[in-house]
Design a protein that fits this description.
By secondary structure, the protein is α/β, with parallel strands linked by helices. It has five helices and twelve strands. Helix 3 crosses helix 5. The structure holds zinc ion.
């Protein structure tokens, strides 16, 4: 398979407005936890979509290292009964934002991470091909922390400075009926206000955030 990016792909990547943030698709201020769970993107793919997820292991338990162990195939499947449900899966995301806003990165943005699964957005299937996956430490339909929104908003701006990102949506929007994350409590309106992104760049605000 050709690994040389096509002329279209090179043209699709604008000059970085923030020199020093990115090095070969790795964020300079993230903690790097390289995952083997990735591949090459199809040649010529414009990276134009961000998919927001939520995850915690076991679900609803925060602060441990289980997510990074899952994404690096080092999770002890016998350590918790829940892990039996996911035993052996090989997944990853590009980024993970902890409850305190700390940023971890597992896969270069230039590479294809394994976060979306069977998915479709605006008529294009296999969203892993052209998206960046960002996991928020959390539980679907439960509120997220302000620090997470702030890290996410900053990361989105930095991604847009280097790749032609056009939309940010939830996993629930690219895999409706199969996935529910990040869920009703994710505040897309807050994200819009922090990023200045327009409504057409975000999912339809059909699901207002839960009131506290
Ligand atoms: Zn997800």
């Amino acid at each position: 398979m050709a690994t040389e990016p096509s002329a279209d792909a090179r043209r699709a990547q604008p000059q970085s407005a923030q020199p020093g943030v990115w090095h070969a698709g790795w964020h300079s201020r993230a903690r790097h936890v390289p995952s083997p769970n990735h591949g090459t993107r199809p040649a010529g793919t414009a990276i134009d979509l961000v998919i927001v997820h939520s995850i915690s292991l076991p679900p609803g338990v925060y602060g441990g290292d289980e997510v990074e162990r899952l994404f690096t195939n080092t999770l002890d499947w016998d350590a918790h009964p829940y892990f039996e449900q996911i035993r052996g899966i090989e997944v990853s995301s590009h980024f993970f934002i902890r409850r305190d806003g700390a940023l971890l990165q597992f896969v270069s943005v230039e590479d294809r991470a394994w976060h979306a699964g069977k998915s479709s957005w605006q008529g294009r299937d296999n969203c892993n091909d052209h998206s960046v996956g960002i996991e928020l430490e959390g539980l679907e339909h439960h509120p997220f922390e302000q620090a997470q929104y702030e890290t996410l908003a900053r990361l989105l701006a930095e991604l847009r400075g280097n790749w032609p990102i056009r939309h940010a949506v939830g996993h629930e929007h690219v895999a409706p009926g199969r996935k529910e994350d990040p869920g009703r409590a994710f505040d897309w309106g807050l994200l819009a206000s922090l990023t200045g992104w327009q409504s057409e760049q975000l999912p339809p605000l059909a699901m207002p955030p839960l009131q506290a």
